[in-house]
Amino acid sequence: MRARERRTNGLICAEGDLWKDQRRFVAGCLKNLGMVKFGTRRDKMEERILATVNECISKLRSRATVDGIDPLETLHHCMGNLMNDLVFGKVYQEDDEVWRWLRHLQEEGVKHIGVAGPLNFLPFLRFLPRYGKVMESLIDGKLKSHRLYETIIDEHRARREKVDSFLAAFDEEMRNRTDAGNAGYFTRPQFYHLLADLFGAGVDTTLTTLRWLLLFVAVHPDEQKKIQDEMSELLGQRQPGLTDRPALIRLEAAISEIQRLRSVTPVGIPHGTTQDTQIGDYDVPKGTMVIPLQWAIHTDPSYWHEPLRFKPERFIAQDGSIARPEAFLPFQAGKRMCVGDELARMILYLFAAKILRSFVISAPSDACIDLDGECGITLVPKPHRLVFTSRE
Questions:
Q1: Which of 26, 41, 48, 90 is an S-S bond match for 34, by CB 3.0 to 4.6 Å?
Q2: Is residue 368 annotated as involved in ligand binding?
């Protein structure tokens, strides 16, 4: 299909000079926030992540029952609030009405975008009631969330205090460029769309991967025990931190296997060709929409032995180190791969390590666990219950 020429905002759907400019800005912000290999900025980022991880563990411990709980609300609140902190520079109480609405909006948006996906290929479907209502819901949600972002921006400006967040960095850059008479791509519409992209992508993919991990280790207690035994052997009585990540091979392998087996975006993110090219025997004209089928790559038997089985050991090399097979693309590939991949790894590792250090996770005896999931724009687990038994 030939892509239509259009001006888009944000980062995920941006293209051309807008995309280059904003990706450079976002990458710089991530480094300033602490997405670096070492140093005080990384230490501060770890502290921010651990604050929400510890809140999550406390809530799971207080809510745990012998019959199990669905951890979604707890995980969504804690991981979402971490992204609130990093993106907007503010956090919410779990029962805050605005925050409840935002969580609901995100969950519904992910489902609706998946339903609306065929419109990329068959635009006339928008005239059918089913797709028309979905598009109305998506547009209405976007407009309402942008009005909320405007309020948050105004609150930030009224406080006049230094906050380490994307919002603060963009606002400062936009003001400086406007004062210099050259706002460029730093406009209000771009501001709103970029905030939405960063928050949505930051929460949904990492949250979904963590949910799948907890579900799979509950169903595979032998693999869970290997992870916990390794932590006990290497850490003794202390809690895991980022410096321990290279040594916790079993945990890293399990996370990688979940990213492979339950690709968060199984049909990938649409791309467009910038020039006429060829893929195999096919001529692909300039401007064609190309969608990388991540699921097919991650379950291709020519790359993966028994591809539909949960086997973390496939990511452990013979010398005991972590293996990174060529066909493993959890954050896509190329220039447009996920700009926040290292931040996502940090968050996912710390949440997973601390939760598995604190609990033995199991499925209730009366539960029928579904490991297939539901596919919107992301592949998410169906509602389920897990038993969190304290290891202390």
A1: 41
A2: no
C-alpha triplet 42, 43, 49: angle, nearest 5°? 90
Q: What's at 72, amino acid-wise? A: L
Q: Residue 122: inside a domain, yes or no?
A: yes
Phi and psi at residue 316, in whole multiples of 5°?
Answer: -115, 120
Tally of domains in the chain: 1
Rounded Cα gap, residues 22 and 153, in angstroms = 19
Please say whether the beta carbons of 213 and 255 come within 8 A.
yes
CATH number, domain containing residue 329: 1.10.630.10
pLDDT tens readout for residues 287-301: 888 888 899 999 999
Q: Tens of pLDDT along 310-362? A: 999 999 999 999 999 999 999 988 888 899 999 999 999 999 999 999 999 99
pTM confidence score: 0.91
Is 126 inside a domain boundary? yes
Q: Where are the alpha helices (DSSP H) in the chain?
A: 16-33, 40-63, 72-83, 97-116, 129-159, 166-179, 188-219, 221-235, 249-261, 294-298, 341-358
Residue 335 is predicted with a pLDDT of 86
How many angstroms separate the Cα of 109 from the Cα of each of 112, 140, 178, 266, 378?
5, 11, 33, 17, 11
For residue 121, the enclosing domain spans 16-390
Q: Please, what is the end-to-end C-alpha distance for the chain in angstroms? A: 57
Kindly report the three-state secondary structure assignment for every residue of 54-112: HHHHHHHHHHCCCCCECCHHHHHHHHHHHHHHHHHCCCCCCCCHHHHHHHHHHHHHHHH
Q: Are 215 and 177 in contact (CB under 8 A)?
A: no
In a domain? residue 218: yes
Does the residue 4 lie in any domain? no
